[in-house]
Amino acid sequence: MSTNRRTEAEVQGFTASPEFAANLQRVLVDLVELHLQGKQAHWNVVGTNFRDLHLQLDELVDFAREGSDTIAERMRALDAVPDGRSDTVAATTSLPEFPAYERSTGDVVDLITVRISAAVDTIRGVHDAVDAEDPTTADVLHQLIDGLEKLAWLIRSENRKV
């Protein structure tokens, strides 16, 4: 009788390559930094339309925090080790530094949308290499890009003049 059963030795789980893990680490630190910068903006935004922007920034913070958790847990599922320590994030993020002190709503819109774009650029920059190794993880990246670009559009619209 023929069987398709494999032996236990023939069953191999997927393990992230060092390059794959490094690509996800880049995404992780940028999402952690985006979360932190979004909170900095949220606490210090002042001016016209304050409340709406204040609440939008919380939406961004929640999305970035949840996204960083998804990426870190995906890394662990594939036997990679995420590093979200503050020293690591500060030393390796690609996001521009967020300025201190109070900022007007108009300035915060411009500042935070640039940082969202920087995070999206990182995700797009690693996408093809991630997709070549693991299309399932590339699907996670697609969801992050879609969500971040939507949030950038909603926030950027606060300053749009027609």
TrEMBL record:
It comes from the Bacteria. Coiled coil: none annotated. GO terms for molecular function: ferric iron binding; oxidoreductase activity, acting on metal ions. PROSITE patterns: DPS_1. SUPFAM superfamilies: Ferritin-like. Gene3D superfamilies: 1.20.1260.10. InterPro entries: DPS_DNA-bd, DPS_DNA-bd_CS, Ferritin-like, Ferritin-like_SF, Ferritin_DPS_dom. Residues 22-157 form the Ferritin/DPS domain. Belongs to the Dps family. This is DNA starvation/stationary phase protection protein. It comes from Mycolicibacterium monacense (Mycobacterium monacense).
